[in-house]
Amino acid sequence: MKKNVIPKEGVYYIYSIYQQILPELLVRDLTKLFYDIEMPLIPCLYRMEKRGIKIDIQFFKQLTKELEKEIFSLQKEIYQLSGIVFNLNSPKQLAEVLFDRLKLPIPKGKERSTASEVLIELLPYSPIIEKILRYRELNKVLTTYLKPFPEMCDENQRLHTYFDQTKTSTGRLASLSPNLQNIPVRGELGQKIRKGFISEEGYLLISADYSQIELRILAHITEDENLIDVFLQDKDIHTTTAAKIFKVKEEEVKEDMRRFAKMVNYGLIYGMSDYGLAESLRLKKEEAKEFMENYLNSFPKVKEWREEVIRKAKEEGYTKTLFGRPRYFPALLSPNKTLYEQAKRQAINAPIQGSAADIIKKAMVEVDRKLIENRFNIGLILTIHDELLFEIEKERIEEAKEIIKETMENIYPLKVPLKVNIGIGKNWQEAHS
DNA sequence: CTCCCCTCGC
DNA sequence: CTGCGAGGGGAGA
Ligand SMILES: [Mg+2]
Ligand SMILES: [Mg+2]
């Protein structure tokens, strides 16, 4: 709920809007979604925004100081190595330095670009590249997180985001001003930044993260026996998938095989084709095709479902999530092949991503209600798509943990269990399990 | 102001 | 030719 969005005069129209949307809700069978999920979510989100999350301002400022020192010397070294002073933040100028002035090659299969993916390929050609990559990493965290956040805090060193309930096409929430759904987590620097998000004195943070919620939803929707089996036995989905793709025993699955399977699993959720898979993994077409076939034979209903969801979306014009949330796809009638193919991928993804959003929203309403009912002092403070973050008084941590886990895992029973991993700590890094 | 490039998260 | 977002900053209007 962003500040000042409702003008005084606007309130006048709410009843007339209600009169218009009620019949619309009824004919589209959306009353449950509206009254059981989205409406109760509004006060819940408002409380989360009001509670905010505490950051260690001194820690942010100290880290800023250290990284600014490093970034300044990086900048100097980059200008030295390139023999020219230019604006490092300008991809256009940087491309001119790298590809025209220093005559570095454009990797085959890639466009002329300074994206990190391209720069990594250029690492062997010049010592300037690693410095640019590090500069980018530091500049990103400094300008997006470390420098702005201390300025945005309230008098209690707490940051308050806004959750936008209407922004996304799938039903997810969006977080803005600041966005607290894209706080760095990967790598040493990400872990360090997360240590700056802390609990109040006498409190701890609890992170509750749905394990593989989208793949569990895929298992539920497709009713694929093998996929369901993996989750009923609580096996590692990526390891199991790797074993099936490569036709080896699960004990023989190596780390890179598991990583590959993970990409395949997510690729399927995102509507990826075998061509796209081959491309992203730089595989020979035949290999990718064989792995893809092994996958589809292992989880046959996934392929059937992907075709069925597209067929239905063409016929009816929309897809639906578990809770009946529609997403419309006019582009499925487009003569433009690019738009058409894109719409097909979106139509595969929307029911999965959107159903995950349905489930976590329902869990939020329910957990928030229970924690308030039981007189917890702070409670739910953030949602990051499949994770809920809570701030709870130390003495009642175990009590809260039980309520949270039990509520989230049983909020909407599927044909496979929903599993929630809980972590506890005095900062987000410790709590994020 | 908008568009684009780039990079952070799930 | 893998989905959904936010946001910093450059470039050009
Ligand atoms: Mg998770
Ligand atoms: Mg997560």
UniProtKB/TrEMBL annotation:
SUPFAM superfamilies named in the record: DNA/RNA polymerases
Enzyme class, first EC level, given as a word: transferase
Keyword entries, A-Z: DNA replication, DNA-binding, DNA-directed DNA polymerase, Nucleotidyltransferase, Transferase
Residues in DNA-directed DNA polymerase family A palm domain copies: 190-396
Annotated InterPro entries: DNA-dir_DNA_pol_A_CS, DNA-dir_DNA_pol_A_palm_dom, DNA/RNA_pol_sf, DNA_polymerase_A, RNaseH_sf
Catalytic activity entry: DNA(n) + a 2'-deoxyribonucleoside 5'-triphosphate = DNA(n+1) + diphosphate
Example of a GO MF term: DNA binding
GO biological process terms on file: DNA-templated DNA replication; double-strand break repair
Domain of life: Bacteria
PANTHER family: DNA POLYMERASE I, DNA POLYMERASE NU
Protein's UniProt name: DNA-directed DNA polymerase
